[in-house]
Each structure stands twice: as structure tokens, then as C-alpha cells.
Amino acid sequence: MLPKWFNTWNRDNPTNIYGPAILVGAAGLAVTVAAFVVVVGQPYATDSLQTGPRGTGMSVPEFESDLSEADPTIAGYLTRAQISDDAIASISDEALQNVPPGLGDISDEQYAELVVAMRAWTGIPDLMEDPDNYQTQIAYTMVGMTQSVNENWIGHVQSNAEVGVTCYTCHRGQPVPSEIWFRLGPVNEAAEGWAAVQNRVTTQSQYTSLPSDALEEYLLNYGQIGVHDLESHVAEYPSEGIQTWQDAERTYSLMNYVSNSLGVNCVFCHNSRAFYDPAQVTPQWATEMLGISMVQEINNDWLVPLEGLYPPERLGPVFADAPKAACKTCHKGYQQPLQGLNVIGEWPELALVESD
Ligand code: HEC
Ligand code: HEC
Ligand code: HEC
Q1: Band (356; pLDDT cuts 50, 70, 90)
Q2: Residue 149, C-beta contacts closer than 8 angstroms, at least 6 positions apart
Q3: How far apart are alpha carbons 156 and 154 in whole angstroms?
Q4: pLDDT tens profile 223-263
Q5: Which atom of ligand 1 is nearest to the CA of 325?
Q6: CA of 92 to the centre of ligand 3 (A)
């Protein structure tokens, strides 16, 4: 079907095409092999979690090299089975007499096991030994707080499976848990009003120029997080009680904190075309909603009232306020604390508030 002139030209100019063909073939094979190695064999392959309909960009990419690395603190978790008879025998009678309120019903042996575990989880070797010691007194409240979180916030701490929390979820073997926070107040003394709460790199602004008071405003003071609606408010601005773009910055500050606390991005919970719409969210959005109320309760009902018990060096640097908790105090950068390890199954005494 080729034109006549081409056949004539071809006959008059014979060329050996096999040499170049082999060359092109070899080069093609090399490219294919290289592409295969890059795609299948390279160490930085990513995995992604689909959180919404395909094509809407609702997926959270993660490096597989991160995924295969277990949270290193999981190995340090003391289980009930690991507690030896020697360890139980080493608990003194004084400590055994010193039972926090809320644990009255358990046997001596069960309580001795719990004391061994609480000492390991908090890294305090003489916890519960002396009833007048401030750490022991704080531990009374901590037991009640842990029971309350496990019993009253099942929708959060068992949102997927039996997981729950124990002292180790926050403490990880340390008397002072990591990722606690204090009130900061104005962080920029050169400015007044709104400008004074932002533009300063702090851990609470997640090292951004966003406001540093988001945790205080939302996880202590019950501030309104939602800022968006579909009406025009041009005529009303600026006025009291109207959410402004400044409030939106604080909301973003909180959302940044939340994302970093869990090691996820925004579409883990939202459809990014409609951040405001609770009808276009993932189940994790609702888990966070419960988490916000739970953290407000942990701070206001349990941690803030402990203020008078701490030695001064444990209090906040600006307002001498009690240390507080938030999402990262439990999650430590993981989607689920301790990567979903069930910590409550074998410690029912920490799961139930005594009914009396
Ligand atoms: C007292 C410890 C604690 C605190 C504080 C806490 N969480 Fe959680 N959270 C948990 C536990 C435990 C789970 C695991 C539940 C499960 O997998 O069944 C969890 C699960 C979640 C999940 C579900 C993850 C998934 O894979 O489905 C989300 C989302 C979440 N938390 C968000 C938050 C946010 C946001 C905050 C702060 C406002 C917060 N959490 C504060 C303990 C905590
Ligand atoms: C939701 C997180 C959380 C859980 C769960 C938790 N704690 Fe705490 N705990 C804290 C925070 C925050 C502090 C204040 C840190 C400080 O003392 O500076 C604290 C402080 C303490 C202190 C005082 C430490 C010191 O030297 O100042 C003791 C003791 C303690 N906790 C024991 C326990 C025990 C025992 C449990 C389990 C029954 C427990 N905690 C569970 C968050 C938690
Ligand atoms: C773990 C789930 C979760 C993650 C991750 C998350 N959000 Fe949110 N977001 C929520 C929840 C829950 C609310 C509603 C809070 C409320 O109204 O009390 C919310 C509210 C908002 C709002 C306010 C919506 C309104 O009605 O005005 C904005 C804006 C927002 N998020 C943006 C973001 C951005 C940006 C990111 C990523 C940096 C992000 N969120 C990450 C759960 C999440």
C-alpha cells in the first residue's frame, strides 16, 4: 500500500536496518528494566489510605518505610503477664494500704499488680508508697481520670476496636508525659490585640505564624471552632460575635495541631472542597468531635484542679498554671495511640468507674 515512488527509492537505496533495530531494542529493554526497578524495588514506595470517593483527592499518602516501623514505645509497655511474683512481693504493706478511691473493690493481689504496672508506666519507683507524697496524691486523681476516659468516652477510645487507655498511653515510662502544654498568653509583646497571639514560632502554633492560643481557646475554653457559612456577612463586619478570618486562622492552627498529632492530613477527616460540611466527612471526623469534648473534660475536670498539688517547677512558665493534655499527649503522632494496641483488655479495674 506504500506509494510507488517510495518502493522505487527503497529499492535504489538498500539499507541494513537490523543493526540499528538491535540497538533500539536493547535501549528499550534497559529503559523498561530501569522503570521496573524504580517502581517495584525502590525503598521509598508509598501507600495510601483512601478516605473518600475516587477522584476527589481524598487519600492520605504514607511512606511504606514509615509504616513498617513500629512505634518504639510499644515494646516498653508492661503487660499483666510480665509481672513476676517477686515484683508483686516487693510491694510494701504501706503501699497496699494506700488504695486510691475508685479501686476499693479489688483484691490485694490485683492491686499489687496494678501498683507494679503503674510504677513502670510512669517511671516512678515509689508511687503509692507515701500517702502524703504529691506524686501519690496526683496518682489518685489520675486513676479516676483514666477510669472515666475508658468508661465515658468509649466512642473515642474504642472507636474501632477494644483499645482504651492506661497510664502508659500518656506517660510512656516518664513521670511527666511528653506533649503536654501550658497557657502561653500573648506571645508577641510588641503588638496588641489579635497580632499579639500570633507570628511567633511556638510548639503550639506547630511552628507556623498561626495563632498560638488555639489549644487554650478550643480545648480548655470551649471556643467555637466552626467559622464557615455560605451567607455574605459583609455588612456586619467587623463586630462582636461574628466569626472573622482571624478566627479562621485560629481554627487552622488547631487543625494543623490535630493533623500533626495523628500524623495524617486534612482529608483523613474532611472533603477538602467543603471543610464546613459535616455531611461530607469521614467517620474519623466524628471521632475527633468526641475527642474534643473528651479533652475539654480531661483538662477542666481532672488536670486543672490538680494545680495546688504540683511543686512550682512543674507549673507553666507564664501563668504558673497546671500542665494540660491534648490530642498529642495520647496519640504522639500516630493515627491511634500505641498503634491500636489493646491496653485496657487485661486491666478492667482501670476501665470501670466503681458504682457506689
Ligand atoms: C486519652 C487519650 C486520647 C486523647 C487525649 C485523644 N485520643 Fe484520639 N484516640 C485515642 C485512642 C485510644 C484511639 C483508638 C481507638 C480505636 O482505634 O478503637 C483514638 C482514636 C482516634 C481517632 C480514630 C483513628 C482511626 O484510625 O479511626 C481519631 C480521628 C482521633 N483519635 C482523634 C483525636 C483528636 C483530634 C484528639 C484531640 C482533640 C484526640 N484524638 C485525643 C486516645 C486519645
Ligand atoms: C490523658 C493523659 C494521662 C493519663 C492517661 C495519665 N496521666 Fe498522669 N499525668 C498526665 C499529665 C498531663 C500530668 C502532668 C505532668 C506533670 O506532672 O508535669 C500527669 C502527671 C502525673 C503524675 C505526677 C508526675 C510528677 O512528677 O509531676 C503522676 C504520679 C501521674 N500522672 C500518674 C498517673 C497514673 C498512675 C496514671 C494511670 C492510672 C496516669 N497518670 C494516667 C497525663 C496523664
Ligand atoms: C482528625 C480529623 C480532622 C483532621 C485531620 C482535620 N480536621 Fe478540620 N475539623 C474536624 C472537626 C471534627 C471539625 C469540626 C469542629 C467543630 O465544629 O467543633 C473540623 C473543623 C474544621 C474547619 C471549620 C469548618 C467550619 O464549619 O467552619 C476547618 C476550616 C477545618 N476543619 C480545616 C481543616 C484543615 C485545613 C485540616 C488540615 C490541616 C483539617 N481540618 C484537619 C476534624 C478534622
Answers
A1: very low
A2: 157, 165, 294, 298
A3: 5
A4: 999 998 788 877 776 777 788 888 999 999 999 999 999 99
A5: 5
A6: 49
